[in-house]
């Protein structure tokens, strides 16, 4: 059983004893959100990230999820992508395709990867244009309070420096309020060129889940979740605050080891 708790304003924390338990809980959570979205809207618009996340979603390719999830209604996006060819080892698309999308019956035309033959700036513009079209046709909902897309679920990983998607500490991309998708050419985590959802888009989602494992993330997680004074306010992960949606943290004990809340870490 996952140890769960709610940290004021920082969402639902689910701390798992083992990786296997975390993977099952994550697969259950995604499958359930998919069911709800398909029932309510007829679509499930999900945005993925790169890194360890895809491996942690692996149970979705197994029984029962591979049979019970309505894959035909899934529309796949990326919260961030590296500006490399789609078949490059650094591509988040390739990671997701090899680890997940090729193992379940997703409709190929529902997979919205970035244009890999243009510059980072153009790729960001193109991606935003694609999302705008899908908002018009209601495949992606729209926020009631701003004109942002409202993804059914955005999945994020956390960097040891506190980054989420390709929004890095002290980077001007954190201040972008107009664009839905922006680009950077100086990512501290290689490769340097990336496109990323902006904070207004992340915070307009119906559900945001941040999946964090390992001791190396414990400090960043502590700064992202707990009251730590001015230091914490600079951490991009702390800026993830869905306006109307729900925020859930999927954690292992190592990542959660520096959280002070005694109910969670006793
Ligand atoms: O493309 C990327 O680099 C990511 O989307 C990035 O935000 C990632 O999720 C974190 O860096 C965590 O990565 P790990 O889980 O592999 O540490």
From TrEMBL:
Catalytic activity: 6-phospho-D-glucono-1,5-lactone + H2O = 6-phospho-D-gluconate + H(+)
GO molecular function (one): 6-phosphogluconolactonase activity
Keyword terms, alphabetized: Hydrolase
InterPro entries: 6-phosphogluconolactonase_DevB, 6PGL, Glc/Gal-6P_isomerase, NagB/RpiA_transferase-like
Pfam families xrefs: Glucosamine_iso
Pathway(s) this gene product operates in, as recorded in its UniProt entry: Carbohydrate degradation; pentose phosphate pathway; D-ribulose 5-phosphate from D-glucose 6-phosphate (oxidative stage): step 2/3
Domain Glucosamine/galactosamine-6-phosphate isomerase: 18-249
GO biological process: carbohydrate metabolic process; pentose-phosphate shunt
EC number, as in UniProt: 3.1.1.31
Entry GO terms, CC: cytoplasm
Family, per entry: Belongs to the glucosamine/galactosamine-6-phosphate isomerase family. 6-phosphogluconolactonase subfamily.
NCBIfam families associated with the record: pgl
Name of the protein: Probable 6-phosphogluconolactonase
């Amino acid at each position: 059983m996952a140890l769960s708790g709610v940290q004021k304003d920082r969402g639902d924390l689910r701390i798992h004893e083992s990786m296997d338990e975390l993977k099952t809980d994550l697969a259950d959570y995604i499958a359930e959100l998919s069911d709800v979205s398909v029932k309510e809207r007829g679509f499930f618009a999900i945005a993925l990230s790169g890194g360890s996340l895809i491996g942690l979603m692996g149970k979705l390719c197994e029984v029962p999820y591979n049979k019970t999830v309505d894959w035909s209604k899934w529309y796949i996006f990326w919260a961030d992508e590296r500006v490399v060819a789609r078949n490059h080892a650094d591509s988040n698309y390739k990671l997701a395709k090899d680890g997940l999308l090729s193992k379940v019956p997703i409709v190929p035309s529902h997979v919205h990867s970035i244009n890999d033959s243009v510059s980072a700036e153009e790729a960001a513009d193109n991606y935003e244009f694609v999302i705008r079209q899908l908002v018009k046709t209601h495949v992606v909902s729209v926020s009631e309070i701003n004109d942002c897309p409202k993804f059914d679920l955005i999945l994020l990983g956390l960097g040891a420096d506190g980054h989420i998607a390709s929004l890095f500490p002290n980077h001007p991309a954190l201040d972008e309020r107009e664009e839905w998708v922006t680009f950077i050419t100086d990512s501290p985590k290689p490769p340097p060129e990336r496109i990323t959802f902006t904070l207004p888009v992340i915070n307009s989602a119906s559900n945001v889940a941040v999946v964090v494992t390992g001791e190396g993330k414990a400090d960043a997680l502590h700064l992202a979740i707990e009251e730590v004074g001015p230091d914490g306010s600079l951490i991009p992960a702390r800026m993830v605050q869905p306006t109307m949606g729900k925020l859930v943290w999927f954690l292992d004990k190592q990542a959660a080891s520096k959280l002070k809340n005694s109910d969670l870490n006793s």
